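Data availability excerpt. The first of two example chains:
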Amino acid sequence: MTVLTRFEPFREFSTLQDRMNRLFRETYNEGGQDQSLTTSSFAPAVDVYEDEHNVVLKIEVPGIDEKDIDVRVENNTLTVHGERKIEKEEKEENYRRVERQYGSFTRTFTLPPTVDTEKVLANYDKGVLKISLPKKAEAKPKQIKVNVGGEKTLEAKAPSKAA
């Protein structure tokens, strides 16, 4: 099974910084309300699986309009970019706690050479972006029948003679 991996050496530092910022904001904010409501980048969860015909990515992006999602394939690299915007109907001072992350995200995946980048499909349903990456025909597994017994061989038919 081919595994798609993304290398982000500073991801843990970004998460630590976000947690520290939240801690200081909650500690030094007298009223307990989050006054800043600043946007920050986030990385939505992704499931990747593979079968004999496709490599499939399922990305959780609830609350994001499909027009705010951009999927691109370039040089065997899949890039998914999107943005979750703060809803303006709510007044910021009424919030007691904000745990949902807002802002833009970019996820990048290096594709294996077995993927046919010309036939990529993306579907957005119920907050999940599903990207199907079909495999090239030569990359699909082929089953070969194994004959049992030492004497059996395949016979080639001779071409018939035209009369």
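And the second chain:
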Amino acid sequence: MGTTYRAEVIGSMLRPPYLKQARKRWEAKDIATREFKEIEDRAVDEAIGLQERCGVDVITDGEMRRTHFIAPLTDVISGVEPIAGFTRVWRRPHEPNQPGEQTNIRVQYAVVDKIRRTRSLTNEEFTYARRRARKPLKVTLPSPLMMALRWSPQYSRRAYPDPFDLFRDAAAIVHQEAHELAALGCEYIQIDAPELGMLCDPERRAQDFADQGMNPDRLLGEGLEIVNSIAEVPGVSFALHVCRGNNRGYYVGEGGYDAIAKELFTRTRNFERFLLEYDDWRSGSFEALREVPKDRAVVLGLISTKRPELEPIDQIAKRIEEAARYFPREQLGLSTQCGFGTVWEGNPIPESTQEAKLRLVAEIAHRTWR
């Protein structure tokens, strides 16, 4: 196991209003690229400063240069085009067995040709942030299996009759990104895999995978081997983040890790850390942690980025001790359950609450593991 980090962030920070406005102007060609990049730089500086002030142990650039957490695998590749929109139901956090707010979010992109990387987004992110960061810096990359949500039986079969060939091409792109980041001095890469959390939910298994021609069991076998293959880069420590969707405060999946735990934790041999969403009932119990090999680390995502309320310190401390019944306490850490802005719009919480949540992560973690 590599360096131990007790207080972690997941990746994205809330984009400031001036950055959102600048991107709209840049996309409309109202400002030059250089001016827009200087505005992005300012947002990255502020995101780094915020995380360092809050006291977390490892930071990111806040994903300020991305439109979406998956951007390194969608915004800078060819072969993806807009299609006729369809909707996916997302839910707001609510209590178990109680109705919650729902919304239909349009999904309207599909792979229509062999994918090729056109440029690197993360190289720019890392080289700039490296000069600014005073704390350990990590880069987030999307899981290649996220392309399951871009594979369409109607539009993608000519290029990829078997979606797993698409996943392998996506994995090659992510692996190349990781190698290039390592050459630039990056020592910590996190792979974001919400699609694995969706496999915990029988409804999502059926609608998003089986009904679209992708066998969920194959995803947990061959698919996880594909994910594991990207985390083999000398000198880099890899972490795997699993959640159940995070879009403007909504989530898409429910269900504990038990349904995927054995395959998830044993097939991903090249990952040293698992960053697991555990902020409410949707993630089930900690019993699934029994399946994690004892030479790994687990970061508990107990602080919600979806809810504005601050979690009581004593409540989080109790949950950490509960998790320690199933996995060694000295190999645990604490984080938010997901990013604050995995999509451009961000979660519905104020920037002051974002800061308070990060301070809470650092305070509880450093009090727990002194």
